[in-house]
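step=encode ok
step=design start
structure_in=
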């Protein structure tokens, strides 16, 4: 059986900045957040199985999230040279993804009833099969929190975590459901 304290300790060991339990019932969903994805500011819309529309609609993702009884929000905070440090943002996201995939691998050895949500697109494959072929690793790809219609700032507040940290930092936030 999974234990919140053990998961949070593992997250810290993998390099997470912070981790805290959040009530699944406190997680709210906003389908209108998908509009941000559809505007394709990040360049990932329609390019991979973990981002919209490949990851499914908000209602399906909401139902999946709400099928779990426990959740832990976790963060990685990366440093930037300045607010335009795109390379620093990418490096932070890569570090966050290493944590997300490590905890996913750790938990998968204990149960198959869990879900890890992340930040940004899946990075398992150098070239995604989307949309021409099925995902090579459907049990491993990580859907972004916001693609589920979850407001990250609100999620952090529900978990008692800061959304904004020091100047010249970027915060990536994920969610483990079990």
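sequence_out=
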């Amino acid at each position: 059986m999974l234990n919140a304290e053990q998961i949070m300790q593992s997250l810290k060991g993998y390099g997470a900045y912070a981790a805290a339990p959040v009530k699944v019932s406190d997680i709210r969903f906003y389908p209108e957040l998908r509009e941000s994805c559809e505007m394709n500011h990040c360049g990932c819309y329609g390019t991979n199985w973990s981002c919209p529309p490949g990851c499914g609609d908000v209602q399906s993702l909401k139902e999946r999230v709400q099928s779990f009884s426990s959740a832990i929000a976790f963060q990685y905070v990366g440093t930037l040279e300045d607010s335009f440090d795109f390379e620093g943002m990418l490096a932070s996201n890569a570090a966050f993804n290493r944590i997300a995939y490590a905890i996913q691998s750790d938990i998968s050895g204990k149960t198959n009833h869990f879900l890890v949500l992340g930040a940004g697109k899946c990075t398992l494959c150098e070239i995604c099969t989307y949309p021409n072929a099925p995902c090579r690793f459907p049990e491993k790809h990580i859907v972004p929190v916001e693609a589920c219609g979850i407001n990250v700032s609100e999620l952090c507040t529900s978990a008692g975590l800061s959304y904004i940290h020091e100047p010249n930092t970027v915060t990536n936030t994920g969610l483990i459901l079990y």
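step=design ok
step=annotate ok -> Strands lie at 18-22, 71-79, 115-118, 143-144, 169-177.
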